[in-house]
Amino acid sequence: DPKRQAFLNNLEQYQSEVTKLAKARLTDADQGSIPKNHLMLFDKIITEVEAAGATPIFIMPPTLLPQASLHQAYAQGKIPYLLSFNNPAKTPALYEISQRHDSEHLTDPGAQYFTELLANAFVETLHP
Questions:
Q1: Which of 9, 97, 103, 119 has its CA 20 to 30 A from that of 15?
Q2: Residue 73 CB partners (closer than 8 Å, separation 6+)
């Protein structure tokens, strides 16, 4: 797979991005304001989900994108639940080379591990 090979050939950049993400996740909930269009989108999602009789739960997969506005919205109480897995310090296994197909996709074992983490977090969130 060319994408996997390109990833393996550029591990130094990947590891640099993981380190950068870990540093960003230490401060992103406290930094700046949330863009108005993001707040409008969050409100719309919450309204639609609740209108359907469901509980809105936002999920952040193990990506390299910090998604600061989502974390800020949760920290500020603008969204009710956030299951976040994009913090290499909290879920380092999801960022191990063996768990990654490339910088944004998990291998089959990585996806299975993520699914287990997500399922457990989901149950803990709804049934504390």
A1: 119
A2: 34, 38, 39, 42, 79, 82
Q: Which residues, at least 6 apart from 14, have a Cβ–Cβ distance to it below 8 Å?
A: 7, 97, 100, 103
Alpha carbon 127 to its chain centroid, in Å, reads: 21
- C-alpha to C-alpha distance for 114 and 109, rounded to whole angstroms: 9
What is d(CA 108, CA 111) in angstroms, rounded to the nearest whole number? Answer: 5
Place of tokens 């390109």: 6
Question: Residue 37 class from Cβ within 10 Å (0-12 exposed, 13-18 middle, 19+ buried)?
Answer: exposed
Kindly report, residue by residue over 2-27, the tens digit of the pLDDT: 999 999 999 999 999 999 998 887 66
